[in-house]
Amino acid sequence: MRRQERHGGDGCENECTLAKCGDGKIGTNEECEPPALGVCSSRCTFALQRLFVTFDKYAGVQGGLAGADLLCRTLGRTKYTRKREFVAWLSGDAPLETAAMRIGSTENAYLLPSENVVALNTADLLDGSLLKPIDETEQGTQAKPDTSNCSMAGVWTGTKSDGTSTAGATCGGWAEQRVMGTVGNFTATDGGWTNEGTCGKCGSETQRFYCIEKVVP
């Protein structure tokens, strides 16, 4: 008889067979098992996208896009399975660094932590009008407007409502202190949600970030 062991925390189940998506069991970091009435993706997550605004405020200088993405990925994992990969809704100055390109495109709806729908799909997210403001944090709480910095309930974006870059207003690619960055308003549902104005002193002024789940094949 083969010895059966269960090793805590390493995903090993039943004679040390690693759990995997599609094995009929909802394992660690999985939300569902396909086909699950057509609502479960091939990655064993529900077929929808998540998004939130950060609870805390941060300087615009994050060591570049990668630093801001790391922040969103870390915060996202406090609320959701690590199979959901979050990036910051930010654009850089380079042609391939637009926020729209960084999140990818999907027909899935975008939902807040409360399950309220912000947009029906990516095209809807980028059409200049949201169904709901992105005003819920990774903690599931509603963000409180604070206009002490740059006179708006601000979110660093560097991005127009169609997901393209406001080139020259991206805090120097989110890496330079004495420049300006485009800021959105997390209480807005028109194009101002991502492009309300500009804020200077990227290294000292603090704003929030939007964290949006990117499309993973």
Describe the overall structure.
This protein is an alpha+beta fold and 217 residues long. It has a single domain (48-217), classed as Mannose-Binding Protein A, Chain A, CATH 3.10.100.10. Helix content is 12%, strand content 18%. Strands 3, 4, 5, 6, 7, 8, 9, 10 and 11 form a nine-stranded mixed β-sheet that branches. The chain has a two-stranded antiparallel sheet with strand order 1-2. The longest helix has 12 residues, at 65-76. The N and C termini lie far apart (41 Å). The model is unreliable at 1-8 (pLDDT under 50).
Q: What's the quick description here?
A:
With 217 residues, the protein is an alpha+beta fold. The protein has helices at residues 65-76, 99-103, 122-125, 171-174, and strands at residues 12-13, 17-18, 49-53, 58-59, 86-88, 110-111, 117-119, 154-156, 181-185, 197-199, 206-213.
Can you give keywords for this protein?
single chain; alpha+beta; Mannose-Binding Protein A, Chain A
- Low-confidence segments: 1-8
Sheet/helix structural class? alpha+beta
CATH architecture classification? Roll
Rg of Cα set? 19 Å
CATH homology group = Mannose-Binding Protein A, subunit A
Q: So what's the overall shape?
A: elongated
Strand residue percentage: 15-25%
Oligomer: single chain
Helix content: 10-25%
How many angstroms does the end-to-end distance come to? Answer: 41 Å
SSE series: EEEEHEHEEHEHEEE
CATH top level label: Alpha Beta
Q: What is the tally of beta strands?
A: 11
User: So how many helices?
Assistant: 4
Determine the CATH topology: Mannose-Binding Protein A, Chain A
